[in-house]
Amino acid sequence: MILISHRGNINGKNPKLENTPDYIQKALNLGYDVEIDIWVIMGTYYLGHDKPQYSITQYWLNERKDKFWIHCKNLEAIEWFSLINGFNYFWHETDTITLTSQRHIWTYPGKQPIKDSIAVMPEIYKDNLDICKGICSDNIIKYKK
Q1: Cβ atoms within 10 Å of 110's Cβ, excluding its own
Q2: CA pair distance 73, 92, nearest whole angstrom
Q3: Which partner for 134 in 2, 35, 82, 84 could form a disulfide, CB atoms 3.0-4.6 Å apart?
Q4: 3-class SS of residue 143
Q5: How is 33-58 classified by DSSP, letter by letter?
Q6: Residue 23 phi/psi, 5° resolution?
Q7: What is the model's pTM?
Q8: Percent of the chain surpassing pLDDT 90
Q9: pLDDT value of residue 145
């Protein structure tokens, strides 16, 4: 089972810290993959959910790319990542599912079960996780066995 920390959260939401580089690194250090929100503005990368907040470098992304699930937050971000190989990125809003660039099925909360998908925030609707291949949650520690 792939365990994905939502914005760096491990044991509950922490809006003051989520999507910050240090917080994300702590989740990576614990062995989790991390879903991050990325904006690209005039070629500069930023982390942030509702707006671009924390500037990061291409080097920072490259060093961690195998563990990132990148939610592109603006058009420039999706265009930028479509030109770079090796990143797992996607765009979604309220779609039932979206397909990531590495062909993973990313599923909106409450839409499980979907075979071989990533269940996002399954605790909200008590989603059935029997046939999914991964979970993305603010409380990912609760799924660690």
Answers
A1: 14
A2: 9
A3: 2
A4: helix
A5: EEEEEEEEETTEEEE-SSS--EEE-H
A6: -65, -45
A7: 0.96
A8: 97
A9: 74
